[in-house]
Design goal:
- The complex is a heterodimer of chains A (about 240) and B (about 425).
- Chain A has helices spanning about 45-55, 75-85, 100-115, 120-130, 145-160, 175-195, 205-210; strands spanning about 5-15, 20-30, 35-40, 60-65, 70, 85-90, 165-170, 195-200, 215-220, 220-225.
- Chain A is α/β, with parallel strands linked by helices and about 240 residues long.
- Chain A has a single domain (about 30-55, about 75-225), classed as Rossmann fold (3-Layer(aba) Sandwich).
- In chain A, strands 6-7-8-3-9-10 form a six-stranded mixed β-sheet, with helices on both faces.
- In chain A, strand 1 (about 5-15) and strand 2 (about 20-30) form a beta hairpin.
- The longest helix of chain B is centred in the first third of the chain and has 41 residues, at about 15-55.
- Chain B is α+β, with helices and mostly antiparallel strands.
- In chain B, strands 3-4-9-6-8-7 form a six-stranded mixed beta barrel. A two-stranded antiparallel ribbon of chain B has the order 2-10.
- Chain B folds into two domains: about 1-50 and about 260-410, no CATH class; about 80-250, no CATH class.
- Classes of the chains: A alpha/beta (about 240), B alpha+beta (about 425).
- Chains A and B meet through helix 2, strand 6 and helix 3 of A and helix 1, helix 11 and helix 15 of B.
- The structure holds adenosine-5'-diphosphate (ADP) and magnesium ion.
- Magnesium ion binds near residues 46 and 47 of chain A.
């Protein structure tokens, strides 16, 4: 069974008199452990799609089934609980809490899940921080970290609770190409090691090179859906 | 929730200036209230004291019918002073002293001018047990019974161009509406913190007054001093009960029921108004702070919601943060207030010197220094209110912030 299934999903933004159709009928299945890129020009609907999948927004029409649950019928609180336990977000602008250290930012996500005792919490946070290459930087605040390091914290924060799905909206857009590659490599590694399902949007060819499945989206419709046996970079 | 509380307190350190300014506003409000409360209480205590010591005593034994017309100072419905009545009063609980007095209307004449005054016939030795007037003699001494001598306020004497040893005439109407006069020498001049005593009253030997008014053996009221002023209300009831056997027309009024004390209630009302204004200021400061903080943390709040934080949890962090500001401000305010009250209680504040005029001239029965009064209950109350208002005032703006759509705040749409 697919982890995620979209059937005829439409999203129309109602801007007063003008209606902006952002998604015009998306049918999509994403299986467990996939590493998928959604690419397409700016304004094609990538962010909108990720927000719908991430339970941050509701479609105008169509159905989304995540982990066997139909999202249509869920209320705000239930959606928040799905996000809390099953979905990790990575955004272009990192969105770390500035008063918390790298460690605390990651810990925050785990505390919300409220599943582990203090010892386990500590071990898990430190483990994931070293897995994303932030060993020794745990006690730095976001303003003491570089852009690439901040995005690594965001990745660790998204992954620490071992969510079923990680959504990354243009995760490398604010990073130079070398740092982008490092960050992508970290995500690909996590996908391999933990089997976490990743969906990330981009319009950066370098990022696309890491993906096993490439979905092109244009004007709110899927234009191409292409799988490869091996990704171009890591094999 | 503990980690949300920790986050809230960490956020306090985020904009240190803003936290400090907002808590200082609350601290200042708390401080002003404590200062005002201490001073008003000090004035009240002093006013009670001066009214009791120079004018009202603790209890007044009086004929009910007289009481109803008291401001006219009638010569009807007086109390015959017999041994049985005196014994009854003496046997009351907490009794210290009793002073009979005969109050009457008079015109004070210095030979060329006259002023309406209130004459007060007193027995100096009994009077001394109840009132502290003799301590306030600025010139001369108290008269003895039967002497043709009087005591009056220094201010009244100055007004009439009179001095110690001068002769005055009190023109009175006796019980039978006949005109009569009391000719007397000024024996002493007093200056008290009670403006009424300073400007309106002429003290006369009781026997002289009774003779001049043709009311021998009778008085307007008997003023009683008790060991404790707080007992007055209770003892009044008991004594009135006991006096019924003797004379059913007699009533006993405690000082706390007298009209002269009514103005002190007004000060208490004012205190509520000040409290309300202070709390309003604190609420505005808090609301402003929460809105500023929320605006600057919009995308952060969005991210927290994306991570699965519920609205009420976002509200909780803001409310905790504001409560922290309230606690901080309240504590600083109480600390500063305590230091000031300590000074006020120890050294007092000399309003007369500050204003350059006697407070008594404004009709406040206060003389010289006012000493602050400790009111721990008031301090706890205003502290609790400060914290409570900080808590309550933040709820609405916190909900406003928490309810924002996370997508819009993350993407700044
Ligand atoms: N909140 C919104 N209100 C109105 N229109 C929106 C909103 N969000 C996105 N859009 C529009 O929907 C379309 C798709 O946007 P988006 O999903 O952000 O595309 P992408 O992420 O691929 O750049 C664009 O035309 C955009 O202007
Ligand atoms: Mg986008």
């Amino acid at each position: 069974m697919a982890l995620l299934e979209l059937k005829g999903v439409k999203k129309i933004y109602d801007q007063g008199k003008i209606e902006v159709p952002a998604l015009r009928g998306i049918d999509l299945r994403v299986g467990q452990g996939e590493f998928t890129t959604i690419f397409g020009p700016s304004g094609s609907g990538k962010t909108t799609l990720l927000n719908l999948v991430g339970c941050l927004d509701k479609p105008t029409a169509g159905t989304i089934i995540f982990d066997g649950r139909k999202l249509d019928d869920l209320d705000k609180k239930e959606l928040a609980m799905i996000r809390r336990h099953s979905i990790g977000f990575i955004f272009q602008s990192y969105n770390l809490i500035p008063v918390l250290t790298a460690y605390e930012n990651v810990e925050f996500a785990l505390r919300l899940v409220n599943k582990y005792n203090p010892r386990e919490t500590r071990d898990r946070v430190l483990d994931i921080l070293s897995a994303v290459g932030l060993e020794g930087l745990a006690h730095r605040r976001p303003n003491e970290l570089s852009g690439g390091q901040k995005q690594r914290v965001a990745i660790a924060r998204a992954l620490v609770k071992e969510p079923k799905l990680v959504l990354a909206d243009e995760p490398s857009a604010n990073l130079d190409s070398k740092t982008s590659e490092e960050v992508l490599a970290v995500m690909a590694k996590m996908n391999k090691e933990l089997g976490t399902t990743f969906i990330f949007s981009t319009h950066d060819p370098l990022v696309m090179a890491y993906a096993r499945r490439l979905i092109e989206i244009r004007d709110g419709l899927i234009a191409k859906d292409q799988r490869r046996e091996q990704d171009a970079v890591l094999n | 929730m503990l980690f949300l509380t920790r986050l809230a307190f960490k956020n306090l350190a985020r904009h240190r200036n803003r936290t400090v300014i907002t808590s200082m506003i609350i601290a200042l409000a708390v401080f002003i209230y404590i200062f005002y409360d201490s001073l008003i209480s000090g004035m009240t205590v002093m006013s009670y004291g001066t009214l009791i010591d120079y004018e009202t005593g603790h209890l007044q034994v009086v004929n009910r019918a007289y009481w109803a017309e008291e401001e006219k100072l009638p010569l009807e419905n007086l109390i015959p002073m017999d041994e049985a009545l005196q014994r009854e009063i003496r046997n009351g609980r907490g009794f210290v002293a009793a002073s009979p007095e005969l109050n009457f209307q008079a015109r004070l004449n210095n030979g060329w001018d006259e002023l309406p005054v209130m004459g007060k016939g007193i027995d100096p030795s009994a009077f001394k047990g109840v009132f502290a007037l003799e301590d306030q003699l600025v010139e001369g001494a108290m008269f003895a019974p039967g002497e043709y001598r009087v005591v009056l306020g220094k201010r009244l004497a100055d007004l009439m161009d009179l001095g110690l040893g001068d002769y005055v005439t009190l023109q009175v109407k006796d019980k039978n509406k006949g005109l009569n006069t009391i000719e007397a020498e000024i024996a002493g001049l007093v200056h008290t913190s009670n403006p009424n005593v300073n400007q309106n009253i002429v003290y006369v030997p009781l026997d002289l007054a009774q003779a001049a008014l043709a009311v021998e053996g009778r008085v307007s009221k008997v003023i009683v001093r008790l060991a404790e002023q707080d007992w007055a209300a209770k003892v009044a009831v008991e004594l009135e009960q006991n006096l019924k056997r003797h004379n059913p027309d007699l009533a006993v009024y405690p000082w706390s029921q007298l009209e002269a004390f009514a103005f002190l209630g007004a000060a208490r009302l004012e205190k509520q108004v000040i409290l309300a204004i202070i709390l309003l200021i604190a609420a505005i400061a808090i609301i402003n702070t929460v809105i500023l903080a929320a605006l600057e943390r919009m995308s952060e709040i969005g991210m927290m919601k994306a991570q699965g934080l519920q609205n009420k949890e976002v509200v909780y962090t803001f409310v905790m943060e504001s409560t922290g500001i309230g606690l901080l401000g309240g504590a600083i305010g109480v600390l500063m207030g305590s230091i000031l009250v300590w000074f006020l209680a120890k050294y007092g504040i000399d309003f007369d010197a500050l204003v350059g005029m006697e407070m008594a001239a404004f009709g406040l029965p206060v003389l010289g220094k006012i000493y602050g009064v400790w009111n721990p209950k008031g301090m706890i109350t205003v502290f609790a209110f400060g914290v409570l208002i900080s808590f309550l005032a933040s709820i609405w703006p916190a909900y406003w912030a928490a309810d924002k759509d996370p997508v819009q705040t993350i993407y700044h749409r």
